[in-house]
Hints:
Helices cover about 75% and strands about 0% of the residues. It is mainly α. The radius of gyration is 17 Å and the shape is elongated.
Amino acid sequence: MKLIERLTAPTPKFFKILRNIGLGLAAAGGVIVASPIAVPALIVTIGGYLIVAGSVATAVSQAVTTNEGAAERKSN
């Protein structure tokens, strides 16, 4: 399966929810990092980690597909 086919294939419900959580984490991290007020370095570091964790969770969740025909091919 090519990358474009995988990314456009249907995503299972659990991974859609996980993808949305990842988007929320990345957005929250972006807000913390881009905050116009002075915040401690620890908070900015945590914001960076939220961005990375949210981005990875979103990318992995989007790449998961439902492969309904695999069971039929294996049994033949």
